[in-house]
Amino acid sequence: MAEEAGIKWKHNALRHSFASYRLAQIQNANQVALETGHTVKVLFTNYRELVTPEEAKSWFGIAPKVAAKRAGVGSRGKTSRKTREPHRKPDRGYCAGVGISGVSV
Fold this sequence. Notes:
The protein is an all-alpha fold. Helix content is 41%, strand content 0%. Helix 1 (13-26) packs antiparallel against helix 2 and helix 1 crosses helix 4 (53-60). The longest helix is centred in the first third of the chain and has 14 residues, at 13-26. The protein starts with 12 loop residues before the first helix and ends in a 35-residue tail after the last helix. The model is unreliable at 89-105 (pLDDT under 50).
């Protein structure tokens, strides 16, 4: 798709961006290593301190308006008492307790 649009795209650019921003976001190298398949040493060598936690929050906050409405972002809908997260039905393919890479969380 990028080629069709005339955009030069580096190989694994999103994978590398995810590793950098996720590490800044959660500050847990072991968890990010599980999610990305990297070792902690590789994360520290290549991805640590490239972005700030504030930049990570902004990067992960990017979502289409439709997705933001589904998640209740910006709405005053019902929230869970325990987590204060918006109530929502799981999307298809979602399995509670399983993370991005299929690793239980």
